[in-house]
Amino acid sequence: MNKFFIVLFHTYLSKLKTKSFLVSTGIMLLLVMALAFLPKAIDYFDKDKKDTIGILDKPGTVYEPLKTQVQAINKDLKLEQVENEAAAKKLISSEKMTGYLIIENDADQKVKGIYKANSISNSTIPGDLSLGLSAVKSSIAASELKLTPEQLAQLNTPAAVEQVALEKNAKTEEELNQARGLVYILLFVIYINVIMYASMIATEVATEKTSRVMEILVSSISPVQQMFAKICGIALLSITQLVLFFSVGYFAVKQNEDAMNGSFFSFLGFGETSITTIVYAFVFALLGYFLYATLAAFLGSMVSRVEDVQPMIMPMTMLVMIGFFIAAFGLTNPSASFITGTSFIPFFSPMIMFLRVGMLSVPVWQTAFSIGLLVLTIVLLGVFGGKVYRGGVLMYGSSKSFRDIKKALQISKNA
Amino acid sequence: MVLEINNVTKRYGNFTAVNSLNFTIPEKEMFGLLGANGAGKTTTFRMILGLIDPTEGKIRWEGKRIDYSTSPIIGYLPEERGLYPKLKVRDQIVYLARLRGMDKASALKELVNWLERFKVPEYLDKKVEELSKGNQQKIQFIASVIHKPRLLILDEPFSGLDPVNVELLKDAVINLRDNGTTIVFSSHRMEHVEELCEHLCIMHRGSPVVEGKLKDIKRSYGKKNVAVHADFDLAFLDGFPGVTKSKTTTEGRILQVTGEDAAENILRELVPRGFVRKFELMEPSLNDIFIEKVGAAYE
Fold first, then answer.
1. Element housing A173 (H / E)
2. CA-based nearest residue to B147, from B193, B113, B106
3. CB nearest to B95's CB, from A10, A207, A218
4. pLDDT at position A415
5. Bridge partners of B155?
6. CA A197/CA A189 separation, integer angstroms
7. SS3 for B52?
8. What start and end residues bound the annotated signal peptide (chain A) (predicted)?
9. Domain-located, residue B298
10. Cα separation of B238 and B179, whole Å?
11. Closest residue in chain A to residue B87, using alpha carbons only
């Protein structure tokens, strides 16, 4: 087998077998599944939590129509007639009732209600009751005016305001909200993927240098070949994790799709847009990885001790973090001009361009241009990094400053 | 003539790491490269391995350049000991052997043979970090010879080993040489070089100060040592003509003399004075030559 693949698979398999990888992947998959099953779990615990509302119907004619109306508005609200306030209060103190509504006629003989409860922090109950009571009041008024139900319906129909985006393919407000959740999760996945695997590369290189295996390695395989084989090996590891993550997530969500529809989690539903977004996430996660891994590999080659790795790759970590924060900010305002601007800067584009394609409809040339620029940077960094790496791996001493890049390049040039 | 180092110079900026080095190593021979710390031995080895290119001069193996295409016939034991601490001996050696062009099965078979030979077959499935330093060194030695290289470069192969393990490794090295491997090795231990090498080169600050066959070097050095044990006071010998150095030992003196004539004169002088228990004319040790050549270069 080609030496490149020997190093690649050695890196991949030996990392795959480590406890830390297995454990962290396991935890991640459990989290994904937990998230997917959350709506079902919430439903399960919410089931017997029906709120009972006492109705003190003074006119005596409102209870029945109100019950029908409220049932239609919120099926979790249960109405129950009470005799007087004292009985209602007793039921509330024994926690059998959430609150009660006194219905009476005011001076103009119009129906009005007073809602009393221990706490009025729950805003949905009074709202629902008010909606129901209004409807009852309208129908009473209508019958007094001798309106037919059709006439009443006509009166109640609101004027529709439809939103039309002028841009073709633009996402509707609803879609945008849905996209935001998914993009946020995927942004996080990209961020973690880049940070984790890039620093893994740097540590790996530094470990080989510290343990001086590097001297044997570079005498049997060219440092540049070894560096890229290692980067690709770790990339394979990252792809393994991403594929596991996405496929388990996909099936878990598919299983629970019914529970999710209409709930807070509806963004996780897999429409056509979500699939495209996930594919983009995959592409950008991978490109981002290659960019930062190349950087990390040659930075890692500069240090002689594993402890020096973190300070050395700190500027790189900062760069990833800045990109992530800009992207997180852009979630609320993806069309801001500085988001558009930074989405072309190679060190930020894996996250920010992804944010844009996930949230907006970006012209194809912009996406292509950003990806092209990113790939070009990766190639340039690869060539430069290869040179530094070649000298760096042979350099020992307390080298942890960026001045040493020059020194490494010199060794490499002389080599 | 197999390995040729032809007028090789390596400069880093203004610093000259290796200065016009010249030697050839015949096939199936062991060549010793000596030098104090920082003399340029490791740089020389790296140039032979093709890891860095010489600024001037040529290095040829059977007339060809050494690069990654020749890596299956070259073995290298770096000075700094190093293996993957977390990997099992089996995985590690098989990986390194495959990078030298061996296939998995034969690498494993060879590894088992070597472990048997070094009397540590139980290490096959141990992690390297669990082994003692000396045993790690054996494993690393196996890594450098498992693919049966034709050119073997050993940088300080015996440092940090106990006498039993030194013998074990020495036997293995001699065995490899007898089977046709050309070996270049460096050491601070002169007695190992004297014992193993026919040719040697002493380097100092990048420049070769002595180079050639061990016998020729000793002969041309001229000076010899004389050990004298006697029942009477030997102090008068210190100023005797032809004596260049004198060292008192528990039973007598060791003198460095300019040649056999001086030794003869000393013996004549000694005999009438009383009973001489021991009088021995010795070849100069490599240690003496090294100290004098390198020491002189320091001055």
1. helix A173-210
2. B106
3. A10
4. 52
5. B186
6. 12
7. coil
8. none
9. no
10. 49
11. A14
CA pair distance A310, A404, nearest whole angstrom: 16
N-to-C CA span, chain A: 27
> Are the C-beta atoms of A99 and A54 separated by less than 8 Å?
yes
B212: alpha, beta or left, given left = phi > 0 and alpha = psi -120 to 50? left
State how far the Cα of B96 lies from the Cα of B107, in Å rounded to an integer.
9
Contact A6 B95 (CB under 8 A): yes
Residues of B in contact with A216 (CB under 8 A): 76, 78, 82, 96, 140, 143-144
Nearest Cβ partner for A6 among B78, B81, B99: B99
Question: How many structural domains compose chain B?
Answer: 2
B111 CB neighbour count, 10 Å cutoff: 23
Quick: pLDDT tens for A311-350. 888 889 999 999 999 988 888 888 888 888 888 888 888 8
Q: For chain A, list the domains and their CATH numbers.
A: 50-156 (3.40.190.10), 171-414 (no CATH)
Tokens of B74: 């070259």
CA distance B86 to A50: 58
Matching residue, tokens 């020096």: A308
pLDDT value of residue A123: 64
Q: Is A7 in CB contact (< 8 Å) with chain B?
A: yes
CATH number of the domain that B202 lies in? 3.40.50.300
Residues B260, A233: Cα–Cα separation, whole Å: 68
pLDDT at B254: 86
For residue B144, give every residue at least 6 positions away whose Cβ sits within 8 Å of its Cβ, in sequence order, or none: A216, B75, B76, B77, B152, B154
Assess contact for B193 and B187: CB atoms under 8 A: yes
Beta strands of B13-103 (E only): which ranges? 15-25, 30-35, 56-61, 74-77
b/e string for B114-135 if b means 16 or more Cβ within 10 A? bbeebebeebeeebbeebeeeb
User: Where does residue A148 rank: exposed (0-12), middle (13-18), buried (19+ CB within 10 A)?
Assistant: exposed
Q: How far is B46 from chain A (nearest CA, A)?
A: 8
Question: pLDDT at position B231, please?
Answer: 82
CATH of the domain at B265: 3.30.70
φ and ψ of B204, to 5 deg: -140, 120
pLDDT in tens, A67-100: 888 877 777 778 888 878 888 888 888 877 878 8
Residue window 280-339, chain A: list those with CB within 8 Å of chain B: none
Query: B184 is written with which tokens?
Result: 């270049």
What is the average per-residue pLDDT within B98-109?
A: 90
Domain that holds residue B255: 223-283
Structure tokens at A394: 């042979």
Which residue among A10, A216, A221 places its CB closest to the CB of B76?
A216
Residue A4 β-bridge partners? none
Residue A229 amino acid letter: A
Give me the residues of B, 29-68, that contact A with CB < 8 A: 46, 49, 51-53, 55, 68
The pLDDT value recorded for residue B35 is 83
**B82–A1 CB contact, under 8 Å:** no
What is the model's pLDDT at position B243? Answer: 84
Total residue count of chain B as it appears in this document: 299
Do B253 and B134 share a structural domain?
no
SS3 of B88-109: the string is EHHHHHHHHHHHCCCCHHHHHH
Angle between helices A403-414 and A364-392 (to 10 degrees): 70
The tens digit of pLDDT for each residue in A274-291 reads: 778 888 888 888 899 999
